[in-house]
Amino acid sequence: MKLDTPLANIKGVGAKTAESLAKAELHTVKDLIEFFPRGYEDYSKVTNIAEVASGKVSLKVTIEHLNTRRVRRGMHITEATLSDETGKLAAIWFNQPYRADQLRKEKGQWLISGEYGLQGRKYQLTNPSVEKFDGKHVNAGRILPIYRAVAGLKSHVVRKILTELRPAIVMLDEILPPEVVATQKLISRSDALTYLHFPENDEQLEKARKRLGFEELFSLVMAGQLNKLENSKLTGWQIPFDQTHAQEFVAKLPFNLTDAQRSVIWQISQDFEREHPMNRLLQGDVGSGKTVVAGMSATLAALQGYQTAIMAPTEILATQHGETLTKLLQPFNVSVGLLTGSVKPAAKKHLYERIANGEVQIVVGTHALIQEKVKFHKLGFVVIDEQHRFGVAQRQKLLEKSDHLPHLLSMTATPIPRSLALTVYGELDASVLDEMPRGRQPIKTSIVSPNSREAMYEKVELEIKNGSQVYVVCPLIDENPESEKRSVELEYKKLQKTTFKSHKIGLLHGQLSADEKQAVMEQFSAGKIDILVSTTVIEVGVDVPNATVMIIENADQFGLAQAHQLRGRVGRGAHQSYCFLVSTESFKPTRRLRELEKSNDGFYLAEVDLKLRGPGEIYGRAQHGQLNLQMASLADTKSIATAQQAVSQFLQSGKDLLQYKQLANQVSKYQRLTTLN
Known about the structure:
This protein is an alpha/beta fold and about 675 residues long. The chain contains 23 helices and 21 strands. Among the domains are: about 45-140, CATH 2.40.50.140; about 280-435, P-loop containing nucleotide triphosphate hydrolases (Rossmann fold); about 445-600, Rossmann fold (3-Layer(aba) Sandwich), CATH 3.40.50.
């Protein structure tokens, strides 16, 4: 048996199971061995019937009475009386007709594990696992791994197949350098995977998690450090810094820059002067002024004869950036062009010509920027906004539109926890805008039970009468009778006919055409719409200072980062703003909602989000796959620091990574996933 042996060839894997495995993207022995449990249930302690208490139990018993029957709706019930030397116990199985045949077929003792408690009017074991007591326990009498139920794949099936694969697990080769394993006092990879799938106690599980988690972090940190090393060998445009122009720019701005903005612009201008291309990540909470930083930096490049491309993920955001920069840069005679899919063909052709001859100095656009027809005269600076929404290939296409590698600034309004930034973005220089423009007031956030909706509407009515505007965000577009989630279509019609029938209400969602979306946003920006009912298409970039109220329906259905982004659509003017988090049901609020109510700090919320949801949501999914860390926690800064030190020692030793083939493959995958060049 080899790691690349198809699972369909393994003993006990029939056609139906092989189909389920394939749907779950588990094709080979290696795939299943590296399909880690999501949790465990401990049935390792076998008790006597006389000592049984409510909860999870394992018993060694004989079967005394067995009865099967069908009840209404075709449900099949199997009942049994279990006995040992200390007493008797009832067990029941629902819709498992094969249980009767299994238990009648063989006499002797059985190992039975399951949940004991009150079922109907009597205490009994419900749907327990059953195995012959022969010392080869797969689904009873042990610490049971629980696997993700993908594509209908059941945990007991996975456990059974892994029992057949156990000899292959024991023979697995080591993939980490021996000195790393020794220095970190790690168990072998084969022992770690054996303990993970077949743990005998908690100590084995802890050793397995430590080993496999370190392996993931070591690979990821190595990828980041190698990327940084490769980036340092690249040559790019050297753009001189003109202090006089910079001072004139700042003096003519209609507002004062924050100290954080000044600091970041200085960092970027210093990067411009170096021969190696800049590779900088700019993190800033919603409303912290990232666009101004990008605009001033692009102007500094334009004054030296270099063009800038600013790519945004949506037309709404690209259009907003285009309008903001046109207005901001008008006094400096810097030309700004907007290139999106909805630009008319004739205008687009003319814009292509102006970009190619250098007449347009800053081009703002969507994916339209990476089309073959777009030729730059001298592209020196690339800005990727909401960078996690773009794949590596898309960013690469834009960077390739220059003779030399342009300087790259990636921006995100989703603050990234320091631990995640150090690991995933190990090859970047990171800048943070941790200051809000003067005059901004913290948004007052409240959790609202569905039963308290009327009181909320009274506050909203007061805000509208005072001249303010309102967002109402819903998770769905169309009504779904099977879901509690509120839809924009339904909410739009309801508010029009009832609560706010005297006000002008607009509707915005992703299925509208670009022109329709633009028209709605222009009306809202001009104050012609009082209440905008929308999906999350307004999550980033929409800037209407007069909007002071954000209502998020089914707020418990959103991730922390996304809800914080939505809240950031208000509080952009001088007036006090409010965010109402309306929960789906009148239960105790989730921790996510309580944290949102408590804090406006995006960086704090990002750390909480990382602990609650893992890195995938924060990092984004448009990256040729996901980060897919199964053991390591990127919130564990201590382990990350240990991995960084171990990687540095390995790289300084001068050893060739390629001599560790499996490790090199894993590092290469992470390099493709995390690199921004």
